[in-house]
Amino acid sequence: MGSTQLVVIIQNRCIETWFLGNTKIYSRQPQSKSLLDYTRYYDISVNCPELMGKYDKFNTHAQFHEAYLKELFRAKNINYSKKNPGDVLKLYYLEQLLKRIEDQSSHLLSFQNFINFCNIIKSKLNS
Q: Is the distance from CB of 20 to CB of 44 less than 8 angstroms?
């Protein structure tokens, strides 16, 4: 019988924080006031989303990160909600997150830990 090992992966902030890592969703010229304010506060196109703080209008980091993601999606005429996550479930979205951590190895470190764990499991399943 095989052994089981507990692996703890601490996610930095929330799932939306990771979703903010897709550089293809950024609006280079934000039109909405909210998105412009968020981008001026913290530009996730160049800075790691996991290091982003909490904007004053929100009680928690997670609320702000979700609102930021929704504004980015709204600018692209895409909807996002926890119940209906839409595009974030598609393979191309994951591929963009993987590209981000490949291109910028200091970004999304907790996501990188999760991906490394998934790769270990995948290799054990394939052997």
A: yes
